[in-house]
Amino acid sequence: MLLCPPVSARNITVRRFGSPRLPLERVHVEVTSHCNFACEFCPNPRLQRPRGSMDFALLTDILGEIAATGVTRQVVFHQQGEPLLYPRLAEAVAQAAALGLATNVTTNGALLDDRRLDALLAAGLSQLVVSLQTPDEASFALRGAGELSYAAFEGRIVRAVRRVLAAATDVQVVVAFLTKPLPRLTLPVVGADWQLVTHNRQLRALLARWAQRLVEGLPGAPEERAIGRALRRTGVLRRNEVRLHPRLTLESRPVGQWPMPEVDWGRRWIPARFGVCHGIAEHIGILWNGDYTFCCADHNGRTTTARFQETSLYDYLDSAPVQAALSGFARFRPVHPYCQLCLGGPHPVIVAVKSLGSIAYFKAVNRLRRGVRV
Predict the structure, then answer these.
(1) CATH number, domain at 31?
(2) N or C: which end of the chain has fewer CB within 10 A?
(3) How far is 21 from 27, CA to CA, in rounded Å?
(4) Contact at 8 Å (CB) between 108 and 143?
(5) How far apart are CA 228 and CA 207, in angstroms?
(6) Structural domains in the chain (count)
(7) Which residues span the domain enclosing 81?
């Protein structure tokens, strides 16, 4: 069954849940798996696959096929690794923009100096996501940032965001935070002392502080009281989007638990037998070496069944492993062993909560996520 003839975007229709939603919401392209941080809550420091950076000729071919087929309208230059380490990132963004694709760069922000930022803006970047995650000095210790101080890190992000907002551009900026509302169920990774946000009051205080730093003095910036009223509607149990400016959004979401049974305290990891995920129905990943993955959360390429160099995007989406995974999730059954691990955990209670929670999140909560405009 061919999902859609690879002719043009006009032929692509939106599919119901249980098959790829064409055009896909996005395709993640991992330009590099190298990173300048070693975050405790991220699997990147413990990757078990070879590290590398994407050959630019391969990247050019990927962007060309995406544009020609219309399989997605948005390319995210990130899966694992820090994309600003890729020396030809601005060139890649410019090429994608010239092909009519929306572009997203997701970064930890530490390398966002004026030169790199201006190059991305000039290239036609659509969206810049700063994955802040650790919004204060205590939690910044989790980032493994070497000699970079928290003060320098925060200052660079504030300067970069304000520089984008002051520029004559349409670039959207998202500053993203993590919350940890259920610390006994969302377990830490390998000895990390997780100091993430656990309570609504904490979240609102942090968002208020960052809102003030990012928009204070900008033309049209909302008043402090208006920001406070908007933040009262945010909470740690859900995903929140607070629009502070026509081109600036603060986002928070609950932290997940990366499936790393091979390093998670040596405990037995119990695979999930039920649950749901929209990952492969809404997006796929392409690793730096051309390997496809079911979703952006597959850090080690465990779901890889084909490579871009030998298999077109449409043939991959139409392949038996992808179709089996989609069919399983349509029945709330994770089929692929990695999907079972991702929804699983080291304790039966955790597995049950994650499995039931996945259904609630993807089928209800995520659709009703709280968006607030100040």
Answers:
(1) 3.20.20.70
(2) N
(3) 12
(4) yes
(5) 9
(6) 1
(7) 25-263+281-320
Is residue 147 included in any domain, yes or no?
yes
Quick check: is 12 in a domain? no
Strand order in the sheet with 127-133: 292-293, 283-286, 26-29, 74-76, 102-107, 127-133, 172-179, 248-254, 240-245, 370-373
Residue-wise pLDDT for 324-344, tens only, equals 999 999 999 999 999 998 898
Residue 131: its H or E element = strand 127-133
- The pair of three-digit structure tokens given for residue 373, joined into one six-digit string: 């405009």
Q: What is the per-residue burial (b if ≥16 Cβ within 10 Å, else e) of 247-281? A: bbbbbbbbbebbbbbeebeeeebbbbebbbbbbbb
pLDDT tens figures, 256-280: 666 665 555 456 788 999 999 888 8
Does the pTM surpass 0.85? The reply is yes
Q: Residue for token digits 């089928």?
A: 363
The answer as to whether 287 is a domain residue is: yes
- Residue 275 domain-assigned (yes or no): no
Please name the amino acid found at residue 105.
V
